[in-house]
């Protein structure tokens, strides 16, 4: 059997020199500063309120989630039994009965339940609108 010396795996010929490692370290430092906390940075939609009233409509759920990512205050209004989209889940994966897609798109939102069949519920809905 012929003996061979093991070479390190190199996936790019450009990642072998000392200067490349220095560039990568600088790039890592650059990314760390740019991806750090957003404290003190103004939010694009910081003065916007969004009221999401759709049910089982993932296009609306995702759109409101994106607006929330840009700083809008998003209030999701659900019927007393909850949004049917809470039950939709691929492969049966859920957390406490709520599907993962709904959980993922519910970030940056406030959730409220309003029963529009009663006068008190209609009055509460008028207050947030």
Secondary structure tally: strands: 5
Structural class: alpha/beta
Please write the string of helix (H) and strand (E) elements. HEHEEEHEH
Spatial strand sequence of the major β-sheet: 1-2-5
* Unreliable residue stretches: 9-14
Per CATH, the architecture of the domain at 49-128 is 3-Layer(aba) Sandwich
Radius of gyration: 24 Å
Please name the fourth-level CATH homologous superfamily of the domain at 49-128: Crotonobetainyl-coa:carnitine coa-transferase, domain 1
Mean pLDDT: 79
Summarize the structure.
With 129 residues, this protein is of the alpha/beta class. The protein has helices at residues 18-34, 58-69, 100-105, 119-128; strands at residues 49-52, 73-78, 94-95, 98-99, 109-113.
Report on this structure:
The protein is an alpha/beta fold and 129 residues long. It contains 4 helices and 5 strands, in the order H-E-H-E-E-E-H-E-H. The radius of gyration is 24 Å and the shape is elongated. Residues 9-14 have low confidence and may be disordered.
Q: Main traits of this protein?
A:
4 helices, single chain, 129 residues, alpha/beta, two-stranded antiparallel sheet, 3-stranded parallel beta sheet, Rossmann fold, elongated
Helix and strand topology:
Elements lengths: L17 H17 L14 E4 L5 H12 L3 E6 L15 E2 L2 E2 H6 L3 E5 L5 H10 L1
Parallel strand pairs: 1-2, 2-5
Antiparallel strand pairs: 3-4
